[in-house]
Amino acid sequence: MPTPPAPERTDASPDRHEPELDGRKAAILNAVVTEYIETAQPVGSAHVIRSPGIDVSSATVRSEMATLEREGFLVQPHTSAGRIPTDKGYRYFVDHLSGPGMLGEQQRQEVRRFFAQVHGEVEELLARTSGLLTSLTDYATVVVAPRHETSSIRSVQLVGLAPTVVLVLVVLSDGAVDKRTVELASPASEAALAAASAHLTAGLAGRTLGAPSATLLPTGDDSVDAMVRVGVEVVAELGCQPEPDQVFVGGSSRVASAFDAVDTVRSVLSILEQQLVVVELIEEVLDRGMSVAIGVEHGFEPLASCALVVSPVKVDGEPAGTIGVLGPTRMNYPKALAAVRVVAEQLSDRLSRGAGGPAAPPGPDRARAAESRRKGER
């Protein structure tokens, strides 16, 4: 019988090699971390001996806690106080979780309802997803939108808004819809627009916006070919345009209650307002092969008292954005990991189907109505 795989490590930087603790020390450290996450109060031996898996005397627990302090896993904030975990202690705790944890049934239902009911374009979906993560974790949350130049094209549609005005809709694999309005030199018939849409979709589907546009074979109908050229030009323009990262932040109002120090609250709120910094921070964590960065591990001093739990979002196996939660190092890691994992999976599935769900991309009538509303709002 083959040997079962070892439990997956939830966050590890591949070059970290902390020594293993023996079973008793590991159980005591786990008890201290768990209690401190729950209460935010230093943990003494009296609490530890009541924890599951601890079957030794109070004197033995005190001795082992002193050893864990010397080894850098715990610290004693005051002489008469109990111990609290260090970043090293939290890291050991996270690395030795048996899994990412489980959301409660009520929270799982909340996630299912959210993704069953949410509709709209990608930007709206991502903004509301950041709110969902905040609701599940009570921490500040960050959702980084996918960059469209890496997304593949699902379809290209040409919709007549007026006799010489055409709306070009480019539907991408991540569910986004890019739009451009084009003035024509002469009117185009509905039949020519429909035929051009079909020809563009057949020729460009699966290509990325960032790749050079294909030269599509002529259809033999001059009016259709003219519309095809319009569509190809719009796709090429979309692929060439620099695209800033879109970042959706939720839970800023929860930051004050999550951190004890006013200076830390100010620092965290300031960082969350700087989208470029947030994106670079998350990318750095993922590039190092981590899903959890604790304290100074993320290399960003202003957030030294924070922990970051992140997960990539994927569409058809390709990266399509990132989600994460930012909280104090005294974070409920099992709950945060569970929430990020479940939401990343559901969001990946939704984006794979398109932000609006399984329905087809907007048809001509809906597109005209949407464009009319947009113009009326200007």
Into which percent range does the helicity of residues fall?
40-55%
Question: How many domains would you count in the coordinates?
Answer: 3
Rg over CA atoms: 26 Å
SSE run: HHHEEHHHEEEEHHEHHHEEEHH
**In CATH's first tier, which class of the largest domain applies?**
Alpha Beta
Output mean pLDDT: 82
Low-confidence stretches: 1-15, 356-378
Taking the sheet with the most strands, its summary is: 5 strands, antiparallel
What's a concise summary of this model?
The chain is an alpha+beta fold and 378 residues long. Helices cover 45% and strands 16% of the residues. It has three domains: 23-95, Winged helix-like DNA-binding domain superfamily/Winged helix DNA-binding domain (Arc Repressor Mutant, subunit A, Orthogonal Bundle), CATH 1.10.10; 105-147 and 245-353, GAF domain (Beta-Lactamase); 149-243, Heat-inducible transcription repressor hrca homolog, domain 3 (Enolase-like, domain 1, 2-Layer Sandwich).
Write structural notes for this entry:
This protein has 378 residues and is α+β, with helices and mostly antiparallel strands. It has three domains: 23-95, Winged helix-like DNA-binding domain superfamily/Winged helix DNA-binding domain (Arc Repressor Mutant, subunit A), CATH 1.10.10.10; 105-147 and 245-353, Beta-Lactamase (2-Layer Sandwich); 149-243, 2-Layer Sandwich (Enolase-like, domain 1), CATH 3.30.390. The protein is built from 13 helices and ten strands. The strands form three sheets. Strands 7-3-10-9-8 form a five-stranded antiparallel β-sheet, sandwiched between helices. A three-stranded antiparallel β-sheet has the order 4-5-6, with helices on both faces. It has a two-stranded antiparallel sheet with strand order 1-2. The longest helix has 21 residues, at 333-353. It is elongated. The relative contact order is 0.14. Residues 1-15 and 356-378 have low confidence and may be disordered.
